Amino acid sequence: TSYLSDICTFRSVSLVVDHGAYTPCGIAAHELGHNLGVRDHDGSGIAKNCPASKNCIMSPSSALIDQTNLEHSFQFSECSIDQIEKLLRAKDADHTNCLTKPRRVPQIHMFIKPLLATMPGEVTDVHAQCRELYGEKSFMCWCYLGKCVYDEKAPSGIDDCPYPDLPPPGANCNDARAITCKNPLFRNKCCQSCNKDFSKEKVCEDTSIKINGLLCKDLVSTYGQHSCSAGEVEQYCCKSCQDALSGNTCEDSSIRINDLGCQEFILRYGAQACATENIRTYCCSSCQSATQSSPSSVKSIRKTGSITVIQVSSSSLKSSCEDNAMIRISGMDCSGYVSLYLDQACRQPTIRQHCCGSCLPYD
């Protein structure tokens, strides 16, 4: 208990009962706040706009300190600070503010100062503090594989990760990867899984997330190595991007060119179609096969099930034959215009010149 707003008077004292385990420290700070001018607790009176649930020093009652209130438990709220400032300004106005006057250091300070060099936790360890608070059989619980054990039995661990994985909503700590552990929220909740040295292979691997509804391998296979130029794709699909950029993987994407799959398109128009970078990227496997075989003339047309295999001469394509992406014909790009008017469009020399790629099927 303490007198309210009686700092710098003969009643500037407080009475605090020591219940052990350093609990009086918070109580003493609370009572000092009253003595310095805090009349209303957080959440009431003129301090109603400062929630008591934040557990600041001047909350009406003290709650157990946890991650939700740790930031505030050792601070005065804004409402408390306003009340203290109001009293001190009044003391300044009537020249009774003793806190601004130099005073001779009392002898008691000389006795206490050496003791402050040792932190309380160095005198009384955490287990002794638990016993003082909860009884002789209490100890600090370290959770290991879901069991509460005394710390000597637990494996060594980092100081900021004494508890088991508690994954955030929608996450799984088994997904801990070098990249996911860089996320502060994931690392905080899955610190046990993240507390390891990732191998060189593990540092660069694909995550299990989906981008545009596709897993990493499918995404890079579908859109080619160009998709890796997007920062997030390269970050979350490290291995697939690394393989694509280094040439370790060479697969056809599932896109269709002029309504043809890669294999059918390359077999139809020959290896020279692969001179176009986009086609070479999206149809890597077919281009690789075509380049190695390099057919020089039409040899056969055969059907295998639903797949038509056409071997053609590579001379049917120019070495560089692409649509002019800058032009519009009746408001449409080359692909749209040619797909609408088919070979009739390509009979016009100007359109054939600017829409070379789209007109290839009608040569």
TrEMBL record:
UniProt cross-references to InterPro entries, sorted A to Z: MetalloPept_cat_dom_sf (IPR024079), Peptidase_M12B (IPR001590)
All residue ranges annotated as the Peptidase M12B domain in the record: 1-88
List of catalytic residues: E31
Superkingdom assignment: Eukaryota
Gene3D superfamilies (alphabetical): Collagenase (Catalytic Domain) (3.40.390.10)
Protein name per its UniProtKB record: Peptidase M12B domain-containing protein
